[in-house]
Design a protein that fits this description.
Number of helices: 9
Structural class: mainly alpha
Number of strands: 0
Strand content: under 5%
Shape: globular
Helix content: over 70%
Order of helices and strands: HHHHHHHHH
Distance between the termini: 24 Å
Radius of gyration: 19 Å
Oligomer: single chain
Length: about 230
């Protein structure tokens, strides 16, 4: 059995990082452009709301994929199908793309006049007059994800141990997005949405428990060897 490779020691191709960053910034900028009415969508149109709903689902699925890829990388399970550098590149790409779609999801609501989301209510947690707590779950999850992406690029400076501990916040970001979508989404009661949340939440729980149990098993072996 090959030893696990610490993610913080793996280098990713600069081109991959640049591509994922370009996708993220382009999507966020696109959302801002739509919100300002630069696409020609008439004021009062429900298109803003539908765009936000659609991009929210895409952002959630991408975030789920990023968390799954991260679990496969950290647990070593993914090595059966893909080399660690490729797993890490996929993880980073999905994370950045998720941030881009999440930015689109929020910013495009500036164009919706039914609920009226000003810029502050979109970017500042608890600043929204509409379901402030549930909206804040999505906002906090978004900013935590942004912090984690930034931390990846400075992981060698802050140290592998500190970076790994900080990276545990990715689970909080995912579950905040899960609660945000499940309880706030207007489509959550639809059968397909219920299936989506069940099908994505279950494997995250399974892989997380597997990772925790594996870590405890390794720690127990080390303690046992030390006692001998």
């Amino acid at each position: 059995m090959r030893p696990l490779i610490a993610p913080e020691t793996i280098d990713v191709a600069p081109g991959s990082v640049a591509l994922s960053a370009a996708v993220g910034f382009a999507l966020a900028a696109g959302g801002f452009a739509v919100a300002l009415g630069m696409t020609g969508i008439a004021e009062g149109s429900t298109s803003f709301w539908y765009l936000s709903r659609a991009s929210g689902f895409v952002a959630y699925v991408l975030l789920w994929g990023s968390v799954m890829w991260g679990l496969l990388l950290s647990s070593g399970m993914g090595r059966r199908w893909m080399r660690p550098p490729l797993l890490l590149e996929a993880h980073q790409f999905l994370s950045t793309a998720a941030i881009g779609f999440a930015g689109f999801h929020g910013l495009v609501l500036m164009g919706d006049r039914y609920i009226s989301f000003p810029f502050e209510a979109i970017v500042v947690p608890f600043a929204s007059s509409y379901e402030p707590l549930l909206v804040a779950f999505g906002q906090i999850g978004f900013w935590v994800s942004v912090l984690l992406i930034v931390s990846f690029h400075v992981r060698r400076r802050i140290g592998g141990r500190a970076w790994r501990r900080l990276h545990h916040a990715s689970f909080a970001a995912f579950w905040m997005a899960f609660i945000h979508g499940l309880l706030l989404g207007t489509d959550s009661a639809a059968p397909l949405a219920s299936v989506l949340y069940l099908a994505t939440g279950t494997p995250v729980v399974f892989l997380t428990l597997s990772r925790v149990l594996a870590a405890e098993g390794i720690q127990g072996v080390l303690v046992g060897n030390g006692a001998n």
